[in-house]
C-alpha cells in the first residue's frame, strides 16, 4: 500500500526547472532510493517531500490525503546536518525528543534506546565535536527517528563519509528498514543496491527510470562481449560498428566492450573477425551489462 504518492511534482527557481513532473510512489515498509548525479534535483525533491519547500505545482498525498499536514509523521536528515558540537550525543537526542513533544522521562528513555540501536551508546556522554563522520551521521539518524516517524527521509546520508563510515551508516539504514519506511537519496549506485527495494533514477529533474532492483536488472540487462587485446585495431573497430547485432561498442586501449542484441550471431562473427584481422586476444568473455552500466547510460545519454 502506498504511504506517499507524488504526482507531477515540479519546482522552478526563476528560469531554472530543478524538478520536472516527478511522480513516484512510496510503499509502506519499503526503502526507496532516489539515485542521480550532482544537480539532478534530489535535494529539491526531498525538501518538497519534507515540507521545507513549496512545489511550483504537483501534489503529494500522504496516506491518500493531499490536505493532511504530515510533517510530524516524517523524520528528516538533511544533506548537511547541523549539530550543536558542544552538546553530548545524549543531550542532543534528549533535546530533539523534547522538541518533538516527548515529556522529560520519555525523552531520556528514547534517547538511550536510539543511542543503543545506532551503536553509539558508548559515546553518549562525549561531546559531538569528538565524533567521527560516521558517528555523527548515526546520531543524525537517531535524531530523525526520535518520534517514531512513519517515513524517514535521508538526503545523501552516506555521500560525505569514508568507506568505514559509509558501511556503518548503510548497516544502520538496513536496521531501520525493519521499523519504518525510508526514502534516501544518493549519487552512488552501490548504496542503492545495498539497501533499497525500489530505485528511481533522476536526471535533469526528471525520473528517467524506475523499478525494483530485480526489475531493473532483468528488464534492462543486455548481453555484452568483453575482449582484452594486446593492441587496438581501429580497422576492426570500424567494422564492428557496422554489424546489425551490435548495440554499442566502447573501447579503451586494452579492452573492447561490445553490447549485442544476438549473442550467438555476435560470438560467431567476432570469433571469425579475430582470425581474419589477426587480433591478439588475451581474454574473451560473454556476460551481461550491470546496473552500473545502465545507470551510467541513463545519466549520460
Ligand atoms: N534555491 C535555489 N535557487 C536556484 N536554483 C537552485 C536552488 N536550489 C537548487 N537549485 C538548482 O536546482 C538544480 C537541482 O539541484 P538539487 O540540489 O536539487 O540537486 P541534487 O541532485 O540534490 O544535487 P547534489 O547531489 O549536488 O546535492 C540544480 O541545477 C541547482 O543548481
* Secondary-structure arrangement, i.e. CATH architecture of the largest domain: 3-Layer(aba) Sandwich
Order of strands in the sheet with most strands: 5-6-7-3-8-9
Give the topology string: H per helix, E per strand. Answer: EEEHEEHHHEHEHEEHEHEEHEH
For the sheet with most strands, the description reads: 6 strands, mixed
Strand content: 25-35%
- The class by helix and strand makeup works out as alpha/beta
**N-to-C span:** 33 Å
* Ligand inventory: adenosine-5'-triphosphate
The number of helices is: 10
**Relevant CATH superfamily of the largest domain:** P-loop containing nucleotide triphosphate hydrolases
Query: In terms of per-residue confidence, which ranges show pLDDT below 50 for 5 or more consecutive residues?
Result: none
Quick description:
Pfam families: ABC_tran, DrrA1-3_C. With 301 residues, this protein is an alpha/beta fold.
Would you write up a description of this structure?
InterPro entries: AAA+_ATPase, ABC_transporter-like_ATP-bd, ABC_transporter-like_CS, DrrA1/2-like_C, P-loop_NTPase. Keywords: ATP-binding, Nucleotide-binding, Transport. Belongs to the ABC transporter superfamily. It comes from Exobacillus caeni. The chain has 301 residues and is α/β, with parallel strands linked by helices. The protein folds into 2 domains: 2-210, Rossmann fold (3-Layer(aba) Sandwich); 220-300, Alpha-Beta Plaits, CATH 3.30.70.980. Helix content is 36%, strand content 30%. The strands form 3 sheets. It has a 6-stranded mixed sheet with strand order 5-6-7-3-8-9, sandwiched between helices. The chain has a 4-stranded antiparallel sheet with strand order 11-12-10-13, covered by helices on one side. The chain has a 3-stranded antiparallel sheet with strand order 2-1-4, covered by helices on one side. The model has no long low-confidence stretch (mean pLDDT 91). Adenosine-5'-triphosphate binds at residues 13, 16, 18, 36, 38-44, 187.
Amino acid at each position: 500500500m502506498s504511504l506517499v504518492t507524488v504526482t507531477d511534482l515540479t519546482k522552478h527557481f526563476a528560469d531554472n526547472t530543478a524538478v520536472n513532473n516527478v511522480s513516484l510512489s512510496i510503499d509502506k515498509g519499503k526503502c526507496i532510493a532516489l539515485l542521480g548525479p550532482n544537480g539532478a534535483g534530489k535535494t529539491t525533491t526531498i525538501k518538497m517531500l519534507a515540507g521545507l519547500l513549496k512545489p511550483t505545482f504537483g501534489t503529494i498525498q500522504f496516506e491518500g490525503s493531499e490536505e493532511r499536514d504530515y510533517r510530524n509523521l516524517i523524520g528528516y536528515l538533511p544533506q548537511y546536518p547541523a549539530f550543536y558540537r558542544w552538546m553530548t550525543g545524549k543531550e542532543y537526542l534528549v533535546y530533539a525528543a523534547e522538541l518533538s513533544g516527548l515529556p522529560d522521562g520519555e525523552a531520556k528513555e528514547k534517547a538511550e534506546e536510539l543511542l543503543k540501536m545506532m551503536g553509539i551508546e558508548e559515546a553518549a556522554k562525549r561531546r559531538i565535536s569528538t565524533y567521527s563522520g560516521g558517528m555523527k551521521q548515526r546520531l543524525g539518524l537517531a535524531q530523525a527517528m526520535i518520534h517514531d516517524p512513519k517515513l524517514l527521509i535521508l538526503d545523501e546520508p552516506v555521500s560525505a563519509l569514508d568507506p568505514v563510515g559509509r558501511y556503518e551508516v548503510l548497516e544502520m539504514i538496513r536496521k531501520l528498514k525493519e521499523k519504518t519506511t525510508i526514502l534516501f537519496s544518493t549519487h552512488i549506485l552501490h548504496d542503492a543496491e545495498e539497501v533499497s527495494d525500489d530505485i528511481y533514477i533522476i536526471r535533469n529533474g526528471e525520473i528517467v527510470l524506475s523499478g525494483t532492483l530485480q526489475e531493473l536488472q532483468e528488464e534492462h540487462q543486455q548481453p555484452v562481449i568483453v575482449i582484452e587485446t594486446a593492441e587496438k585495431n581501429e580497422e576492426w573497430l570500424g567494422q564492428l560498428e557496422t554489424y546489425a547485432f551490435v548495440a554499442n561498442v566502447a573501447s579503451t586501449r586494452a579492452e573492447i566492450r561490445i553490447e549485442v542484441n544476438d549473442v550467438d550471431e555476435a560470438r560467431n562473427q567476432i570469433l571469425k573477425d579475430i582470425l581474419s584481422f589477426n587480433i591478439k586476444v588475451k581474454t574473451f568473455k560473454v556476460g551481461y551489462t550491470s546496473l552500473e552500466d545502465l545507470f551510467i547510460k541513463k545519466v549520460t545519454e
